[in-house]
Design goal:
The complex is a heterodimer.
Chain A lengths: L5 H9 L5 H19 L2 E4 L1 H17 L9 E5 L26 H9 L3 E6 L33 H8 L5 E6 L5 H6 L3 E4 L19 E6 L2 H11 L29 E5 L9 H16 L3 E5 L7 H16 L18 H12 L2 H14 L4 H22 L5 E5 L15 H5 L6 H6 L3 E9 L2 E9 L4 H14 L12
Parallel strand pairs in A: 2-3, 7-8, 7-9
Antiparallel strand pairs in A: 1-3, 4-6, 5-6, 5-10, 9-11, 10-11
Chain B lengths: L4 H10 L6 H18 L34 H5 L5 E2 L2 E2 L7
Antiparallel strand pairs in B: 1-2
The chains are: A alpha/beta, B mainly alpha.
Chain lengths: 485, 95
């Protein structure tokens, strides 16, 4: 059952080939059997899942079921779930049980009727590109357990790649959906900033954070994303737009589509293996009638330094709330209030989170604000303008998602800058706010390779359509890791 | 741009992070490398560029000032490390 698409699962439920309870048990059993190896879940919620499954079965019997009713899903542990621990993979929130549901959680479970299997592992506070900064230990890549699954949504990615969940929610601040998707042979989409409500999604960098989905195909991703989006009065940056159907436009032809290939994304630093796979995907799309053209995003390669000013600055402010007073970790035997703050935060946050808080504090501090923060915001504007100019020439942009395939655990943990460069191709979309996705485009020495599609604002439907057409013509995305078939 | 151990202590103080002495040098070295990477930005000509704080040009949405939440103080305080009589408890701040 774990090899079926969401559409097939919905069909199976509708035709009573299996019940939601049976389907849910199947995935819970797989989690129990296989996740010792991958560590993709922080919390598994079997009782809640089975109760939701029974409710779904009742809705199916009553004829009130929707397209996703009764289909299991894993939630990244960054989304608040009422009554269920919401840790953000941090010791700081190890004892935190959310008192309310994130809007995404409400929409997917209470409204769409999906079944929550549990909460997925991730980099602590979504800060990382390898899922090695989690308080709950690293996640392993199902394609090669010596390697990382990417991050920060590494648990979501590993769970879906290993067939422990049909799909999972994820978040993307600088590539945290797309990079893990690329490294685990998944399809992942980060929508336009403002599409998915951030209410109840624990904040990292608020002008960049955006929720999305990791799935095994563009069609699956479209179905889940459809249920996640929409205006939310509880999020002050939620966008108001008429509803549109991502699933309804998947069948459009790509003939005549103008695809821009940014030369900066095919330059030095790209591994030959990834290049070969992306080039082959471009040829495939050309055969399907798409037209490619050489474009330039001249400031794109400045996105990593820009991001490592903007994101830590916002993070240092957002994470000021963890003070050991109202919720979260509190140090013991403190001398005074100052000591309580310092020690609760010193003990509760791991090294990567502390690094970013300090970088952010530094770039915002007196005397450095103009040189770092204001300059980064100006370069951010230049990066945004590059995209505005590019979308005057082409309908979407295609390039590699990552420079290379999944790397080995512990190979980059001592060098933060090397780790940060993982996101060199993905960060620009967050800075600009545009939608972007990664989808599988082949294998290099047995390890998955992803290609990235970036679109203009609110063009998710177009991205998913092109990805779906590509997946209709190819089959690499259907391959499963050994031991997970 | 290289950060000294004293600068790290100052930043850690501003961020209210307790660091051990052996961590200070380690962070000084790592933060210096991060800032060195970030220093590429100083070479970019941004004369006349309007800083971009946010991807969407939007105005702050306002709502009618009316009660929209029920009182769930007990639920929220159930998360707190120490409460008494409906108050969050902290070490004494006034003698």
């Amino acid at each position: 059952m774990h090899a079926l698409s969401l559409k097939q699962l919905a069909e199976g439920l509708r035709r009573r080939q299996f019940s939601s309870r049976e389907l849910t048990r199947h995935f819970l059993d797989r989690v129990q059997r296989l996740d010792k190896t991958y560590n993709s879940f922080i919390t598994v919620t079997p009782e809640l899942a089975l109760a939701q499954a029974d409710a779904a079965d009742a809705a199916i019997a009553a004829g009130t079921a929707g397209a996703l009713t009764g289909i299991p899903l894993a939630q990244k542990d960054i989304f608040c779930t009422r009554g269920v621990r919401t840790s953000c993979a941090s010791r700081m929130l190890d004892n935190f049980t959310a008192p309310y549901d994130a809007t995404v959680v409400r929409k997917l479970h209470a409204e769409a009727g999906m079944v929550m299997l549990g909460k997925c592992n991730m980099d602590e506070f979504a800060m990382g590109s390898s899922n090695e900064t989690s308080w709950y230990g690293p996640v392993r890549n199902p394609w090669d357990t010596r390697r990382v699954p990417g991050g920060s949504s590494g648990g979501s990615a590993a769970a879906v790649a290993a067939g422990l969940a049909p799909a999972a929610t994820a978040t993307d601040t600088g590539g945290s959906i797309r990079q893990p998707a690329a490294l685990t042979n998944l399809t992942g989409i980060k929508p336009t900033y403002g599409r998915v409500s951030r209410y109840g999604m624990i904040a990292f960098a608020s002008s960049l954070d955006q929720g999305g989905v990791l799935a095994r195909s563009a069609e699956d991703a479209a179905m889940v994303l459809q249920a996640m989006i929409g205006f939310d009065p509880l999020d002050s940056t939620s966008v108001q737009r008429d509803s549109e159907s991502f699933t309804g436009t998947l069948g459009r032809s790509v003939a005549g589509l103008r695809i821009g290939l940014p030369r900066e994304y095919f330059a030095e630093g790209l591994s030959p293996g990834v290049r070969r796979c992306v080039d082959a995907a471009v040829r495939q799309l050309q055969e399907m009638g798409a037209v490619t053209l050489d474009i330039s995003l001249p400031n794109a390669m400045l996105s990593v330094p820009t991001y490592y000013v903007v994101a830590p600055a916002e993070a240092s402010s957002n994470l000021a709330r963890y003070d050991g007073v109202r919720f979260g970790h509190r140090a013991e035997a403190v001398r005074n209030l100052e000591d309580l703050y310092r020690r609760s935060r010193g003990e509760g946050f791991g090294p990567e989170v502390q690094r970013r808080i300090m970088v952010g504090t530094y770039v915002l501090s007196h005397g450095y604000y103009d040189a770092y923060y204001l300059q980064a915001q100006k370069v951010r504007k230049l990066i945004y303008e590059d995209f505005r100019a590019a979308f005057g020439q082409c309908d979407l942009i295609l390039g590699p998602t990552t420079t290379d395939v999944a790397f080995e655990l512990d190979s980059k943990t001592d060098d933060p800058v090397a780790m940060y460069l993982n996101d060199i191709y993905t960060i620009a979309a967050n800075l600009a706010g545009i939608p972007a996705m990664s989808l599988p485009c082949g294998f290099d020495d047995g390890l998955p390779v992803g290609m990235q599609l970036m679109g203009d604002f609110f063009q998710e439907g177009r991205l998913l359509n092109v990805a779906h057409q590509y997946q209709q013509a190819t089959s690499g995305h259907l391959r499963l890791p050994k031991g997970c078939e | 741009m290289s950060l000294s151990a004293d600068q790290i202590r100052q930043v850690a103080h501003l961020a209210r992070l307790e660091l051990r002495d052996d961590e200070v040098d380690h962070y000084a070295e790592q933060l210096s490398r991060i800032l060195e990477m970030v220093d590429q930005l100083s070479a970019v000509d941004t004369q006349g560029v309007v800083p971009m704080a946010h991807p969407l040009a939007m105005v702050q949405r306002l709502r009618i000032d009316e009660v929209s939440e029920t009182d769930r103080r007990a639920d929220y305080q159930a998360q707190a490390p120490a409460v008494q009589d409906g108050l969050f408890m902290v070490p004494k701040v006034l003698e």
